[in-house]
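agent> step 3/5: call structure_predict on target 'Carbohydrate ABC transporter membrane protein 2 (CUT1 family)' (Lapillicoccus jejuensis).
agent> reason: downstream docking stage needs a structural representation; sequence fetched in step 2, passing through unchanged.
tool.input:
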Amino acid sequence: MTAVSERPRVAESPRAASGDGGQGERGDRRFAAVSHVVLTLWALAVVLPLLWTLFSSFKDSRSINVSPFALPDTWHWDNYVRAWNTIGVAKYLANTVIVVGSALVLVMVLGAMSAYVLARFRFTGNALVYYVILLGNTFPIFLAVVPLFFVLKNAGLLGTYQGLILVYVAYAYPFTVFFLHSFFKTLPKEIYEAAQVDGAGEWRTFFQVMLPMAKPGMASVAIFNFLGLWNQYLLPTVLNPDQDHYVLSQGLYSMASQQGYNVDYGGLFAAVIITIAPVLLMYIVFQRQLHGGVTAGTMK
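tool.output (status=ok):
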């Protein structure tokens, strides 16, 4: 007598059991098709203006006015030389690097220390301090520019690097604390206790043990802050009237307004490309850290 083995029956999915598998698959395909169409339109809306600006930066003003969407007949590389030397993009770029770089270092150090203390230590008023800092994210910047103007003027910091750096730090500080708070809060407590047992003080524990463990979050929030501060226009326009300290956004606007009806469009587009190139390069280089940091933050 031959034994007959029974094959295990595969459980039917609820969709197949109910007989609506075909409709479900068609619904999935329609959703995927609509998603791809929306993403394609979004990508075109972002990429096409960038390409138009890039090609326009190699054309002269007449070609831009006559055929704005045509490819350049002659590639005018001198637009970049003129933007760099004559228009003064080099000076504006140096000012921006000084202001944004200094503000970024300060806000990352202060924000990380504040987030670490609020996340790891319990004291009276801990939650109150944290939520007061978070309120800074909801305060409209338009309401703050006039008081900031008079504060900096009375302090003698109006139109200086120091004044703009302090304002940039205050502007980015609440978001930095909010972003890093979750990272420090979920770090293993055992590692902190091990560092204490080994004799490390609080400063050494923070800078040599806990801060390196929050590296994904630090990289992500640094990129977000860099993008926000580099493209800032309102704050430097109001608080930085000294032309020698103009940042890129101010310099480009000043250049376009001073030229009146005789705008050097080729040089202007070249200056725009020089302005956005560092931002685009930083995003391309650090996009993996940015994605990893945001994902880690959401998983925690």
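agent> step 4/5: record observation. Residues 80-296 form a domain with the MetI-like fold fold (CATH 1.10.3720.10).
agent> proceeding.
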